[in-house]
Amino acid sequence: STIERCDKIFVIHKGHLFEQGTHEELMENGNGIYRELVRRQRMDIDN
User: Fold this and answer.
1) Segment (H or E) for 34
2) How far apart are the first and last CA of the chain?
3) In whole angstroms, how large is the CA radius of gyration of the chain?
4) pTM of the full predicted structure?
5) Residue 36's domain spans which residues?
């Protein structure tokens, strides 16, 4: 997807910055919000 090619991704939840980094960096965070969102999106695409 387009977001995977971004130089920097910021994850903001309820007005607070929770995570930032490249797609690869954020995917390495096993408990991250971004990783969970990507996982859910991929599940929806597969179904």
Assistant:
1) helix 33-46
2) 18
3) 11
4) 0.81
5) 2-46
